[in-house]
Amino acid sequence: QRRDMGDFPSLHLHIVFASMSRCARAMLSANLAMIARNNQHARYFSTKNLMFLGAPGVGKGTFATRIAPVLGIPTLSTGDIIRTEIKNGSSLAAALKDYSDKGLLVPDEIVFAMVKKRLSEPDAKNGFLLDGFPRTVNQAEMLESFRKMDAVINITLREDVLVQKLSGRRVCSACGDNYNIANIKLEEIDMPPLLPKKEGCCDKCGGKLVQRNDDKEDVIRKRLDIYLEETHPLIEYYSKKGILSDFNVKRGIQDLPDLQALINKIFNLA
């Protein structure tokens, strides 16, 4: 009877295995079993749909702008999208500016419409890094109906340090690049300032560095309260999906290599 050509590789392996000594067969079986156990829970990704969660000021944006280029994916920051809309004077500009200045969350439907439009662009086809979206479980469910997440990293930092860090943040009024004048040393926390080469000027474009209205202490504390009430439940939401990892910040931007290593491990990157 003619044997199907597809059977020959397995037949060849069977002959090789049968010709091995008992000891060699036992060692080979043990190694194959170990490989199977190690790969049992491995995940393989055709995309890199990544999200950073965390309270305002934890460093999501600073980390995102440095990690996304390494992964070859765009960063999507709702804060940047909103500020662009305001700067361009779009039909939503007045309402968005009012929400932003008061430290309030923009309504879910408005934010999702802007995010969906951005994620539909060609450069986000193979992945993206979300920074600041979703902010509510409702937004997360909206996102799930459009693009599914591969991994979510919850970035954490003590609240008292967050207030100091946010108060010291300075952003470029032209390109939005971030800096920080705060020098925080507290117990296990060691976060040196992230200063421009020339005081008050952006290294990238030379624009003027300013303090955002929502980085003033009274607004900061209001933003943290809103985060705990509305955004913190996302941690449980993504934890139940089995795609959440925690990352504790201790040294600010100096923690970048450790965060990159965690992401490489999640996505099985070299």
SSE layout and pairings?
Elements: H1 8-19, H2 22-39, E1 48-53, H3 60-71, E2 75-77, H4 78-88, H5 93-102, H6 108-119, E3 127-131, H7 137-144, E4 151-156, H8 159-167, E5 169-172, E6 178-180, E7 184-186, E8 189-191, E9 209-210, H9 217-231, H10 233-240, E10 244-248, H11 256-266
Parallel strand pairs: 1-3, 1-4, 2-3, 4-10
Antiparallel strand pairs: 5-6, 5-9, 7-8
Overview of this structure, please?
The chain is α/β, with parallel strands linked by helices. It contains 11 helices and 10 strands. A hairpin with a 5-residue loop joins β5 (about 170) and β6. α6 (about 110-120) packs parallel to α7 (about 135-145). Mean pLDDT is about 85; it is low at about 1-10 and about 35-40.
| H/E topology pattern | HHEHEHHHEHEHEEEEEHHEH
Q: Main sheet, how many strands, which sense, barrel? A: 5 strands, parallel
Strand tally: 10
State the low-pLDDT regions, or none: 1-11, 36-42
Overall mean pLDDT stands at 84
What fraction of residues sit in β-strands?
5-15%
Number of helices: 11
- Structural class given helices, strands, pairing? alpha/beta
How far the N terminus sits from the C terminus, by CA atoms, comes to 47 Å
The best one-word shape is globular
Q: Percent range for helical residues? A: 40-55%
